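Most newcomers find our protein records easier to grasp once they have seen one. Each record describes a single protein and holds just a pair of labelled lines. A learned vocabulary of local backbone shapes supplies the integers on the structure line. Nothing more is needed to start thinking about how sequence determines fold. The record below serves as our worked example for the rest of this section.
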Amino acid sequence: MPIFRTGIGQDSHRFLPADSSKPCIVGGVIFEGVPGLDADSDGDVAYHAICNAITSLSGVPILGGIARDLCRKDGITDSQVYLEHALQTLKKQEIVHLALTIEGKRPYFEEKIASMRKKIASVLQINPDQVGITATSGDGLTDFGCGDGLQCFCILTTVTKTS
């Protein structure tokens, strides 16, 4: 019988000042017209939330361990590299579905959701139809909805096939 497991992850970062040259990257896609996110890495809240969801399944600290070491010791700030390392910790668990919800007043996500789904699916080695993404402004009820930063939640479902 297959064993299904569900992991949950979250991440958030504030935007850097408007004059920052750091790009805003979410789900591996660059968003023009907004500053980058305040983080030691590229600050990709989608990839970080996925890493945290994987940690909830594997028990291996990705952002607080593997990614921190890659950043500090090797100077690697590309969150895709962190996610690739995180995938290795799943061992025999196969990803069957990923759901992301992003909260932020800016940037405008709708036009790039398809690109984000394709990019995330490529990294996770799944089909884009296995990746769901929603985005909300939050109607200004939080710092994210007021435009101060971005927040992302992830739910990740895996299956382990047993003999």
Residues 4 and 159 are 4 Å apart (CA to CA). The first strand starts at residue 3 and ends at 14. The two ends are 7 Å apart (CA to CA).
